[in-house]
Amino acid sequence: MPKTNIPVGKVMSKPRSQWGTVIPRYDDSGSLSAWQVRYPNPVDHGKKVQKQFKPHQEHEAHVWLENEHHLVDLHTKGIQTWVHPRDRMRRERANQMMFKEYVEQWAVEYTLPNGERIAGGTRRNLYLDIAHFMPAFEGLRLTEIKPRHIKNWYDGPHPEGQWSFRRACMRLKAVFRSATTMSMDGSPPLLKDNPFIFPIPPEPDSVREDIPPVTPKQLRVLAENMPDYTRLTVFLSTLAGGCVLSN
């Protein structure tokens, strides 16, 4: 890029149009470094919307400004609500984001209610829960997933067991809830509504409830086969632990 005779640090501005400006920016050596576009924020008056283009993108900068002018004009006439370019870009990215990509990011940033990061067994359990539903949705974009997709998985087989299925439902619902929440930086939600509209399965009955109570005969046999110094603990544990003896 040829150098100019612009004094170091000086900014040469192009003639101001009736709406917005395209301004060349120069580095300390006087070489063109960028084109900065500005126009008045139609929602937050007093502020400017800005975007920078590379030195060879002067034409693109003017085209972008004209397109923005058209969107602002539609907003002013009440035809279409204006959305900040930053948020438009985020929405566009959300429309292209794969479900798998979002869940991976969600898992990395996952924290406990007190804000602490998880580690060890807790993190392993998180990824096990994710593994239970990921195969059903990993080929879809985040914004593509509808309640019917979730229902197909929800009503399908779950060989990992009811406890794991329940945890997977809780995790999946939390993933979508996160996508419907405003980000910490104030960015709008990626999804308008949570597509997980199904009830979380109840806790399965404990298998221990199916175990019949110990009988006095079984207790006596157990005690007789224990060493003398621990035999008494069998009876004490039965009484203190609330074990029920059947006749």
Question: Could you give the order of the helices and strands?
Answer: EEEHHHHHHHH
On the 0 to 100 scale, the average pLDDT is 84
Which overall shape is indicated by the principal axes computed on the Cα atoms?
elongated
> What is the domain total for the residues?
3
Q: Span between N and C termini?
A: 97 Å
- Radius of gyration (CA) equals 32 Å
* Helix share bin: 40-55%
Q: Assign the structural class, choosing from mainly alpha, mainly beta, alpha/beta, alpha+beta, or little secondary structure.
A: mainly alpha
Strand order of the largest sheet: 1-2-3
* Residue share in β-strands: 5-15%
How is the biggest beta sheet arranged?
3 strands, antiparallel
- Total count of strands: 3
Q: Note the total helix count.
A: 8
Low-confidence segments, ≥5 residues, pLDDT <50?
1-17
Summarize the SSE layout with pairings.
Elements: E1 21-26, E2 32-40, E3 48-53, H1 58-76, H2 85-96, H3 99-108, H4 120-137, H5 147-154, H6 162-179, H7 216-224, H8 231-240
Antiparallel strand pairs: 1-2, 2-3
Helix pairs in contact: 3-4, 4-6, 7-8
Brief account:
The protein has helices at 58-76, 85-96, 99-108, 120-137, 147-154, 162-179, 216-224, 231-240; strands spanning 21-26, 32-40, 48-53. It is mainly alpha-helical and 247 residues long. Strand 2 (32-40) and strand 3 form a beta hairpin.
